[in-house]
Amino acid sequence: MSFHPNDIARRTRLSSITLSIGFVALLTAFFRAQILDNAKYAMQSEENRLRSIPVPAPRGIIYDLRGDIIAENLPGYSVSILSPRVDSLRATLGRLSAIIPVTPREIENAVRRFRRAPNRPTVVLSDASIDVVSVLEEHRLDYPQMIIQSVPKRYYPDGPLVASFVGYTGEITEAELNLPKFATYKPGQQVGKGGLEKEYEAILHGKEGVKFDEVDARGRPVRTSSMRPDIAPVSAPSMKTNIDMKLQKQVAAIFSDTLMGGAIAMDPKT
Fold first, then answer.
1. What is the pTM of this model?
2. Is residue 63 within 8 Å of 239, Cβ to Cβ?
3. Burial 114-140, CB ≥16 within 10 A → b, else e
4. Torsion angle, CA of 221/226/231/236, rounded to 10 degrees?
5. Where do runs of H (alpha helix) occur along the chain?
6. Nearest C-alpha neighbor of 74 from the set 142, 150, 18, 9
7. End-to-end CA, the chain
């Protein structure tokens, strides 16, 4: 089979034009990616390399009228998992339960927190003991998405003596998250559950911060990043009350260990 010379020339020109168009398209795409969209891709690359971790803010310290501490914060530990999907989270928690105590209820609570805020590290243990933390540190390389961090833990020096009027703190519930006054709160955060802790929650809560960790291709932490400045948490202001802890202790001593009863001050000045 033979072709007319004009057909060969026409096909040659058509092939050249097609190749030229393809080459121009490739150059255009290269120019867009390297020049026009360089900033966007650079930002995406940095975000993929940096992992943001929420940093809880210490609650405000509560004092009595003499300046004695009623409620303060001590160092504690929390364990969180940064997971892309629910099934991945369940699988990780299943593996964790083989080395530390993780109850089915804690797993379901973690899944609930994830569904509420999937882009946020999911709190698994909000108050992990030092023994649990030690075990997890030994297996850290096996769980690159695990985050162990120091968090403020609420402490009441006088314990049951102040429970009736100071209250306590606990994890925010689903019902509370739906309330307008908790619009900025996230699953796993602590809130006041009674007494002064609940009444003055807006004052005692503080403002959560965030830090950025550099991670490798497997998501394992390399170091705290200097590429972006961490946003430090803002501690809540202290609160001084008119409560007289010295008097509270004197009254409590009257009722021995039961702490059941009451006292009336006929003349507060004395």
1. 0.74
2. yes
3. beeeeebbbbbbbebeeebbeebeeee
4. 80
5. 5-31, 38-49, 86-96, 104-116, 130-138, 160-166, 174-177, 195-199, 201-204, 245-254
6. 150
7. 123
State how far the Cα of 267 lies from the Cα of 250, in Å rounded to an integer: 16
Where in the chain are the domains?
Answer: 57-254
Closest residue by Cα to residue 181 from 203, 154, 208:
203
Reported as a single tens digit per residue, the pLDDT across 201-250 is 999 999 999 888 777 665 666 666 554 567 888 999 999 999 999 988 88
- The pLDDT > 90 percentage for the chain reads 49
CATH fold, domain 57-254, is: Penicillin-binding protein 2a (Domain 2) (3.90.1310)
Average pLDDT over residues 245-260: 78
DSSP three-state, residue 65:
coil
Find the helix or strand (DSSP H, E) in which 79 lies. strand 69-81
